[in-house]
Amino acid sequence: MGRLWQTSSADCRLLHRRNKGRSLSLPASFKTVILIPIIMGQFPLTLSSFITQKPAAHQGVTGELAALLSQIGLVGKLISQDLRRAGLIDILGTTGEINVQGETVKKLDEIANETFLKVFHQNGLACALASEEMEKPVLLPENWPQAKYMLLFDPLDGSSNTDCNMPLGAIFSVVTSGHSDRMPTTDDLIRKGTEQVAAGYLLYGSSTMLVYTVGRGVHGFTLDPGIGEYVLSHEQIRIPTRGKVYGVNEGNYHKWPGEMQKYIDSLKVKDTATGRPYSVRYSGCLVADVHRILLGGGIYLYPGEIEKPEGKLRLLYEANPLAMVVEQAGGKASTGAMRILDVEAKQLHQRVPLIIGSAEDVRDAEEFIQGRRV
Ligand code: AFP
């Protein structure tokens, strides 16, 4: 109850001041009439109550999809609980394995992946699971046909940050199986970004957050460890049309095509009209960098390279879900040549260049990359 009283005592203090310091000598029933709405108004809006209380923002959202989102919240609670004690419970360092991406697997990558698998094996809400950490998806015939959703995810984003207590995240994309006559296959998971029915991320920063969209705006919830619930903290997030920061690994500068180099150079030149020069903000965690940009504007880039035109990031469970979130908040997401959500998906672990953020910043980057600006 402490939290409530803190809040409502503020209102009482307000009433008090208006009452010129005299104690609130009001009949009990009157006080009740005044205080309940105030207290009720301040009651924390949890994820599940938000989805039920805001039908307009969740039109077409089935009970299963709402449950699926809250189960992703559960994954976030379980993982953030471990992360808070990471240095104390032997979950730092590597497993010695190499994953399908050719990367060394961190213990936390494995724990995060296992947590997603366990939670979704148990809840029966998905009939297929595809992960950055698994070459092949897990198909769940036992959940089919009642479970019509398929979940694609990056269980732990920013693995290079695990052992130095820097921000981490997880990214998810939800599509429907689209077949009621047969169990879905791996190919059914390989879909265009425009076919997503929901997308979002978990951010493990100074607090744990769940940010999602179901195609009607973007909402952010902060995990309140005191009540173990995600509480609405950012409703209908709108990204500023232009920002003052950019996030890119400039160590790769010499690997980029000239047009890309020119764009990054332009961000460092004084230009009052666009508020340049911009500041660099690059954390090694895509989720953390995109979250900063979603709230404050700016641009994140993991561009294609001369030797690797497809870049590093994965289309289906990194670029597509973040593109849906950012577009729903009024921003843009591009390969430099086209809209991310229109990219033809061909393989499960397909890579794609990603330029994402404020609409005007992404537009500028596209003009440079396409040689329409020098
Ligand atoms: P990891 O999860 O393998 O650390 O990759 C993180 C990431 O996908 C994204 O979160 C970062 O922004 C980007 O890659 C960092 O890549 P570089 O280390 O090449 O800059």
Written as H for each helix and E for each strand, in order along the chain, the element string is HHHHEEHEEEEHEEEEEHEHEHEEH
Poorly predicted segments: 1-7
Largest sheet: 8 strands, mixed
User: Ions, cofactors, ligands: which are bound?
Assistant: 1,6-di-O-phosphono-alpha-D-fructofuranose
| Helix-and-strand structural type | alpha+beta
Roughly how many Å is the radius of gyration? Answer: 23 Å
**Percent strand:** 15-25%
**Shape label:** globular
Report how far the terminal alpha carbons are from each other.
60 Å
Mean model confidence by pLDDT:
90
Q: If helices are DSSP runs of H or I spanning 4 or more residues, what is the number of helices?
A: 10
SS elements, strand count? 15
Strands side by side in the biggest sheet: 4-3-5-6-7-8-9-10
Q: Which percent range fits the helix content?
A: 25-40%
Structural features, described:
This protein is an alpha+beta fold. The chain is 33% helix and 20% strand. Strands 4-3-5-6-7-8-9-10 form an eight-stranded mixed β-sheet, with helices on both faces. Strands 12-11-13-15-14 form a five-stranded mixed β-sheet, with helices on both faces. Strand 1 and strand 2 form a beta hairpin. The relative contact order is 0.11. The N terminus is likely disordered. 1,6-di-O-phosphono-alpha-D-fructofuranose (AFP) binds next to loops.
